[in-house]
Every structure is written in structure tokens, then in C-alpha cells.
Write a structure and sequence with these properties.
Strand order of the largest sheet: 2-1-5-4-3-6-7
Order of helices and strands: HHEEEHHEHEHEEH
GO molecular function, one term: antioxidant activity
Keywords: Redox-active center
Pfam families: AhpC-TSA
Helix content: 25-40%
CATH class: Alpha Beta
CATH superfamily: Glutaredoxin
Structural class: alpha/beta
Number of domains: 1
Distance between the termini: 100 Å
Protein name: Thioredoxin domain-containing protein
CATH architecture: 3-Layer(aba) Sandwich
Number of helices: 7
């Protein structure tokens, strides 16, 4: 009996000491969350879809050859904007840009196609060296992302780096400067025929 009593006393003492330690222990310092700058923003297509049937936001950007391209100067022409992820989007975006550059049907329809990327202009030389056909298309550079933001293409479903890069998005502007069609394409396919059909329907 005495041995059993000692065992019970030791167990009770151990429990009491554990409770005292838990009560008197200082609370753990809160962990400050680390801001992850690489975390994607949520999808938001409100700005993009709100472009429809409204004047397209004006812009002036420089193309690969150093010429300034302004949307206002293209009034009287149908304009197709292709916002894309640029250098890192190989081969999908590159293939679409090349397809636009080589498409005689679009040229015959009098469509001005502007391929817009946020890449630094000097880096585009590397892309042309790898795929010379890219030089057949008009590529303009939105390095500060102001135009991409104005058109709401940085937070669409097709972007693999939402908030930082466009994905694979089209904006069709008619001869009066009004947006008539928008399309974000997560499949990143070549869409010349579908887009030409939309243009012919204007």
C-alpha cells in the first residue's frame, strides 16, 4: 500500500508541476507573416469586360524599331490588340505573334494588329534571334504596365503571373475607337480565324 501511495503522490506531483509550468510560461511571440511578393493576385476581369462598347483607353508606346505608335492615330482603322506574356510565354505567345505577322487575310481586311508586351525592349532582340519570324509583326512595349493596367489584362485567368504580366488576351477596336470585342484565352491557341470573323462582323 505504501508503495502504491508513493506512486500516486509522484504522479500527482508531476501533474501539478506541469500545470504550474503551463500557467507561468510566457506566451509565444506572434509570428509576423512574410509578404510574398510572388503570390498571384486573384482573378479579376471587371475592368477588362467593362471596356465593351466604350472608347478604348488611348496610349502611345514604342515599337521594336523605335517608332511611337499611338492608338489615337489609328482612328479610321480596325485595331486588334494582343496583350501577351512575351518572352517567358514560349512557344504559345510567340506563335500567335508570328501568325499575326504572316496573316495576309488580316492585312487585306485593313486590320492593324498591335502585340503588346511588358518586356524590356532590349530583351526582345533575344526573342527575334531565336525566332526571326517575330520581326514580321508589330510588337510594342508597355514596360511600366500602365496600358496593361488600363485594359485590365494583368489579372485575367490566362495570366500565369497575375498582377505582373498579361496572359493571352485580345481587344478588338472598331474604326471609331470603340471596343467591340474582348477575349481572354487561357488555352493560348492561335485565334486568327475566330478574330477575323469578329472583325468581318463589325
Amino acid at each position: 500500500m505504501k508503495a502504491q501511495n508513493w506512486v500516486l503522490i509522484l504522479i500527482a506531483g508531476g501533474i501539478l508541476i506541469s500545470l504550474i509550468v503551463l500557467i507561468t510560461r510566457s506566451p509565444a511571440a506572434p509570428v509576423t507573416p512574410v509578404d510574398d511578393h510572388h503570390k498571384s493576385q486573384p482573378t479579376n476581369n471587371a475592368v477588362f469586360e467593362n471596356l465593351l462598347n466604350k472608347p478604348a483607353p488611348d496610349f502611345s508606346l514604342v515599337d521594336y524599331d523605335g517608332r511611337t505608335v499611338s492608338l489615337k492615330s489609328l482612328l479610321g482603322k480596325n485595331v486588334l490588340l494582343f496583350f501577351n506574356e512575351g518572352l517567358m510565354c514560349y512557344p504559345a505567345c510567340w506563335d500567335q505573334i508570328v501568325a499575326f505577322g504572316k496573316d495576309a487575310s488580316l492585312k487585306q481586311a485593313g486590320v492593324t494588329v498591335l502585340n503588346i508586351t511588358v518586356d524590356p525592349k532590349p530583351q526582345w532582340a533575344e526573342a527575334i534571334a531565336k525566332m526571326p519570324e517575330l520581326a514580321t509583326a508589330t510588337v510594342i512595349f508597355d514596360q511600366d504596365k500602365k496600358v496593361s493596367s488600363a485594359y485590365g489584362v494583368l489579372t485575367l485567368t490566362s495570366s500565369m503571373h497575375r498582377g505582373q504580366f498579361p496572359g493571352h488576351s485580345y481587344v478588338l477596336i472598331d474604326k471609331t475607337g470603340v471596343v467591340k470585342f474582348v477575349w481572354d484565352d487561357p488555352q493560348m491557341a492561335i485565334r486568327n480565324s475566330e478574330l477575323l470573323a469578329k472583325i468581318n462582323g463589325l
